[in-house]
Design a protein that fits this description.
It is globular, with a radius of gyration of 22 Å. The protein has 22 helices and three strands. With about 375 residues, the protein is an all-alpha fold. α12 packs antiparallel against α13 and α18 packs antiparallel against α19.
């Protein structure tokens, strides 16, 4: 499987496909196990860039890349043929109104196989008119054609140089339309494509400002199946790294939708709330919901390491802002839970727990 996936999915240290990609302060991404082993050996420089690292080094989960890798492992494409067709001929099949549906589906399959592992082919495809042909397929009422077109767009978006170009060619509008109206796996795939495109900062701004993008993701969070809701939350998390998008999300009614999903067990919703809680407008909205702390405490007690990190982050933001929330957290035993988390193996989790303890201690001294 590793030989069939893009090199960007491989850890620079182990050269294996990453299962838990994390970002160093140098901007480089590694598999958590490999980079932790490097750090535990006493190294304090980035293995790739050789830049010095802060003490203690921070490891930031790369949710966008993790989601892309996950999607690649579940997308099943036909086996490659011994003699692949000429890409230009395949593109011509897509744009021709005379091409039967089966021929278009086969062309998309072959183009997906070609572009999945080779950045050179991805570049050639984007330069040879493939994007406009794929976008035409997204307009199709045939769900199979739409899904395969989205798979190909996801492949083409793997390279940063292509991400901005894809947005310039009008990809966002067509992908958002599939997000809202697609059938089968199209809606989940559309959310994944938005996640991939939003990895580039300028695209984060552009996608967030597109009128239906954030509302479309929130609609999927409301009505989607388990995979669709997870992919929508991942896309929102990536978009809300940009502060203005947090305000857009709150104004699109994100807070009650995310709280409902968090209460239903979707930890990624807690992570998005952790980002939104940095925004005053979101904090004020969250404060209107009774028993929200109970949801976060449940994550602290039974959630994954990543979920606990963001539950702590959200609590710190809320308790720093609200005396009422802080006192409620103290009464519910959050301080004691945080003390126990100081023994956790995860460095970022320990740091977030320590921050919340400091916030709660400050309130205890006042009272």
């Amino acid at each position: 499987m590793a030989s069939q996936l893009p090199d960007d999915f491989k850890c620079p240290i182990s050269l294996e496909i990453m299962s838990d990609p994390v970002i160093l302060s140098s901007g480089q991404t590694f598999d958590r196990v490999s980079i932790q082993r490097w750090l535990d050996s006493g190294h304090r420089t980035c293995p790739v860039s050789k830049l010095p690292l802060p003490e203690p080094p921070t490891l930031i989960p790369n949710h966008a890349l993790r989601s892309l890798i996950s999607n690649y492992t579940i997308v099943s494409l036909p086996k490659p043929q011994a003699c692949p067709s000429n890409p230009q001929n395949l593109i011509q099949t897509l744009v021709s109104s005379l091409s039967p549906l089966d021929a278009k589906l086969n062309s998309l399959d072959q183009l997906s196989r070609m572009s999945k592992r080779d950045s050179g082919i991805r570049r050639r495809l984007t330069e040879s008119g493939a994007v406009s042909a794929v976008l035409d397929c997204l307009n199709s009422s045939e769900s199979g054609l739409q899904e395969k077109a989205l798979h190909l767009l996801l492949n083409l978006s793997l390279d940063d140089d292509n991400k901005v170009g894809l947005v310039a060619e009008g990809v966002i509008g067509k992908v958002v339309s599939a997000l809202r109206c697609g059938a089968g796996d199209s809606r989940a795939m559309a959310a994944t494509v938005l996640t991939s495109l939003a990895v580039v900062e300028v695209n984060t701004v552009t996608i967030g400002s597109y009128p239906d993008a954030i509302p479309g993701l929130l609609a999927l969070l409301c009505a989607g199946n388990s995979r669709e809701r997870k992919e929508a939350a991942t896309a929102l998390f990536t978009l809300c790294s940009f502060p203005d998008n947090r305000i857009r999300a709150v104004r699109s009614n994100a807070v009650p939708i995310l709280i409902h999903n968090a209460n239903s067990g979707l930890e990624r919703a807690v992570e998005v709330l952790g980002l939104l809680a940095k925004c005053r407008l979101a904090r004020e909205e969250i404060m209107r919901f009774d028993r929200f702390l109970d949801i976060l405490i449940e994550v602290l007690r039974n959630g994954s390491s990543r979920g606990v990190q963001y539950a702590l982050l959200t609590m710190s933001s809320l308790c720093s802002y609200s005396e009422k929330m802080c006192l409620e957290a103290l009464n519910l035993g959050v301080f004691e839970i945080c003390v126990g988390l100081l023994e956790d193996d995860n460095e970022k989790l320990r740091r977030n727990a320590k921050t919340l303890i400091q916030v709660l201690q400050g309130r205890k001294r006042i009272t």
